[in-house]
């Protein structure tokens, strides 16, 4: 067994650090800093040993995108691969593990169905998302789901994602409990096929050959610094939501104070290293480039009532509605940031509580020890969610008077869909909810072949990007499940592109 190879049940069992071996030749040193905005990702004073073995492909980051890329390469006959992960286990440091596990697919896998899914993505991003990669996701997601199933992945039956013209399904058994098993299954498929891994190994920089192409990575493990050569390198390190410097620089002066829902390891390692290699930050600016949701502080990573929100009334501390709840949880999460105290409640009655989508979120909150407030009157509910009773009662009564059960008309803040009356006799609320961020929509500038691009559009040879590290796919908002779509589709597509174009 190669010294980098771990047990076939690596994801469950032990981990192996990347070993240092004697120098076996010289590469051009780490690239100079080509961006004034690039943040240092590690101590680069040590040159590091050059690993004895050269790989066809190195995949950096073992989340859904990285595992998908590495496993797909094995499927395509590319056996000489290395999957590098900063954390201790494959999949353990990625946002997918704390996601709801949702994927979205077209109503029908036809040109019309895929076009409808693209249109939803465009609507969410106000037409400013990357059209090429958005189309790639819509075109490839059904095949990607089938591919995961072929490796043992299990999913719930798809149902319509109201009010959108698409379907949603979950990694089984659903309700935020399926992504761990799915990642485990895919990771085991990779290691069972003989795929090599290196955990507890942090990317520091990319290295170049004498032709200026990326020819490998410089990493740090508990054994020191090492340079590992490869014909192609895939960035799958996720986003930058835990990088306070980037948040303050690009989101705003208060960006570094936003609660992080996502994994604390997502500090933009791959993004920053690619910028130092000549790449470009893409669509990073302002709060529109940040995914936020109103979540329960007791467990912000899991307790996001994203299924329920469209059917509820979002109430601020003044007892007033402030947003169109049917626009989704990211829209609401951003709206909360401008409300008094940055705190809200999602109010609903027993009719809404009986809906499957809402019941699933209530069950999720109960399992996580988060609060779902119950009351037998609006006055009692107002006391429990700490808002003026008269204001809450007036807000609910006004809403009920202006809805036809589907949408409202005549309100200062209209609701365009799912405008179910709130009449009791029993009332509920997800409370308290505060804004938290799980990922950024910005990242690296890339082309249709998923190559990292320089600011002038020139591809950086040998360097590819997948998943959350791709910038500009979404902006302002995104469809629930679309980020997991992006990860698995771009991961498998990068593998196919490299297999056919680089290693042919």
From TrEMBL:
PROSITE patterns cross-referenced by the UniProt entry: PROKAR_LIPOPROTEIN (PS51257), TAT (PS51318)
Ranges annotated as spanning the membrane: none
Keyword tags: FAD, Flavoprotein, Oxidoreductase
Single GO molecular function: steroid dehydrogenase activity, acting on the CH-CH group of donors
Pfam families: FAD_binding_2
InterPro entries noted in UniProt: FAD-dep_OxRdtase_2_FAD-bd (IPR003953), FAD-oxidoreductase_2 (IPR050315), FAD/NAD-bd_sf (IPR036188), Succ_DH/fumarate_Rdtase_cat_sf (IPR027477), TAT_signal (IPR006311), TAT_signal_bac_arc (IPR019546)
Required cofactor(s): FAD
Source organism of this protein record: Eggerthella sinensis
Residue span(s) of domain FAD-dependent oxidoreductase 2 FAD-binding: 56-484
Protein name, per record: FAD-dependent oxidoreductase 2 FAD-binding domain-containing protein
Keyword Transmembrane helix found: no
């Amino acid at each position: 067994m190669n010294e980098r190879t771990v047990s076939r049940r690596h994801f469950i069992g032990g981990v192996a650090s990347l070993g240092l071996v004697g120098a076996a030749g010289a590469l051009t040193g780490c690239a100079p800093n080509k961006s004034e905005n690039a943040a240092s990702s590690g101590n680069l004073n040590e040159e590091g040993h050059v690993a004895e073995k050269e790989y066809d492909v190195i995949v950096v980051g073992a989340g859904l995108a990285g595992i998908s890329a590495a496993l797909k390469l094995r499927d395509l006959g590319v056996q000489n691969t290395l999957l590098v992960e900063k954390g201790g286990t494959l999949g353990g440091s990625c946002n997918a593990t704390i996601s709801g596990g949702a994927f979205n697919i077209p109503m029908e896998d036809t040109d019309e169905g895929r076009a409808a899914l693209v249109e939803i993505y465009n609507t969410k991003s106000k037409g400013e998302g990357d059209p090429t990669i958005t189309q790639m996701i819509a075109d490839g997601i059904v095949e990607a789901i089938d591919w995961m199933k072929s490796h043992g992945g299990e999913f719930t039956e798809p149902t319509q994602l109201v009010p959108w013209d698409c379907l949603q399904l979950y990694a089984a058994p659903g309700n935020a409990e399926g992504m761990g098993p799915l990642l485990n299954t895919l990771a085991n498929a990779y290691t069972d096929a003989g795929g090599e891994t290196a955990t507890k190994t942090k990317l520091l920089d990319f290295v170049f050959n004498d032709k200026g192409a990326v020819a490998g990575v410089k990493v740090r493990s508990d054994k020191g610094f090492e340079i590992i050569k490869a014909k192609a390198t895939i960035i799958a390190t996720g986003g930058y939501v835990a990088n306070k410097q980037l948040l303050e620089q690009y989101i705003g002066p208060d960006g570094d104070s936003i609660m992080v829902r996502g994994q604390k390891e997502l500090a933009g390692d791959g993004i920053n290293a690619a910028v130092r290699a000549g790449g470009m930050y893409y669509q990073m600016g302002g709060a529109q480039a940040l995914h936020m949701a109103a979540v329960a502080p007791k467990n912000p990573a899991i307790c996001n009532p994203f299924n329920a929100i469209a059917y509820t009334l979002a109430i601020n501390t003044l007892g007033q509605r402030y947003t169109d709840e049917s626009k989704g949880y990211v829209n609401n999460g951003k709206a909360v940031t401008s409300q008094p105290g940055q705190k809200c409640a999602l109010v609903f009655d027993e009719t809404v509580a009986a809906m499957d989508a809402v019941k699933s979120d209530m069950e999720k909150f109960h399992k996580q020890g988060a609060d779902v407030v119950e009351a037998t009157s609006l006055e009692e509910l107002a006391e429990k969610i700490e808002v003026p009773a008269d204001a809450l009662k007036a807000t609910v009564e006004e809403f009920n008077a202006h809805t036809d059960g589907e949408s409202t008309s005549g309100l200062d803040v209209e609701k365009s869909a799912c405008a179910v009356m709130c009449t009791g006799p029993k009332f509920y609320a997800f409370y308290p909810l505060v804004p938290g961020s799980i990922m950024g929509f910005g990242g690296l500038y890339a082309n249709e072949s998923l190559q990292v691009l320089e600011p002038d559009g020139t591809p950086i040879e040998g360097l590819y990007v997948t998943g959350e590290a791709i910038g500009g796919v979404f902006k302002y908002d995104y469809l629930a499940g679309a980020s997991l779509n992006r990860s698995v589709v771009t991961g498998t597509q990068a593998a196919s592109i490299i297999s056919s174009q680089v290693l042919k």
